Amino acid sequence: QVTLVESGGGLVQAGDSLRLACTPSGRTFPSNAMGWFRQAPGKAREFVAAIAWNGVRTDYADSVKGRFTISRDNVKNTVYLQMLSLKPEDTAVYYCAVSNEGHWYPTRNSDDYVYWGRGTQVTVSS
């Protein structure tokens, strides 16, 4: 059974930084794209960032481009989301996800992801 465990969330002030991490257990995913999504209260889940199987290609939502960086370490079987210059509108539960087999490259479509974490809360105060 595959479980994704996110960590690194918390309560910070606007302008601060956080680094989220996500480590799947049960198996490794060296050939799958991985992504981060978020869901704010009362809003639909939205794409944040995704990374290719080898870490070379990435994709970001316009709202986080230039502030967030996704990376992965396939030796540690971990994907990261470095978040800089956080804003109150970044407040959400952040979920990591692993793509279906065959999706080597970043995808924004949540239907392309088969495994999901439980989420980690990020709260940014103004």
Structural commentary:
- With 126 residues, the chain is an all-beta fold.
- Helices cover 0% and strands 49% of the residues.
- The chain is built from no helices and 11 strands.
- The protein has strands spanning 3-7, 10-13, 18-25, 34-39, 46-51, 58-60, 68-73, 78-83, 92-99, 113-116, 120-125.
- The strands form 2 sheets. Strands 2, 4, 5, 6, 9, 10 and 11 form a 7-stranded mixed β-sheet that branches.
- A hairpin with a 6-residue loop joins strand 5 (46-51) and strand 6 (58-60).
- The N and C termini lie far apart (40 Å).
Note the main attributes of this structure.
126 residues, mainly beta, seven-stranded mixed β-sheet, four-stranded antiparallel β-sheet, 0% helix, 49% strand
List the helices and strands and how they pair.
Layout lengths: L2 E5 L2 E4 L4 E8 L8 E6 L6 E6 L6 E3 L7 E6 L4 E6 L8 E8 L13 E4 L3 E6 L1
Quick synopsis:
The chain has strands at residues 3-7, 10-13, 18-25, 34-39, 46-51, 58-60, 68-73, 78-83, 92-99, 113-116, 120-125. The chain is mostly beta strands and 126 residues long.
State the helix count: 0
Mass-distribution shape: globular
Residues in helices, as a percent range: under 10%
**Regions with little confidence, pLDDT below 50 for 5+ residues:** none
Order of helices and strands, N to C?
EEEEEEEEEEE
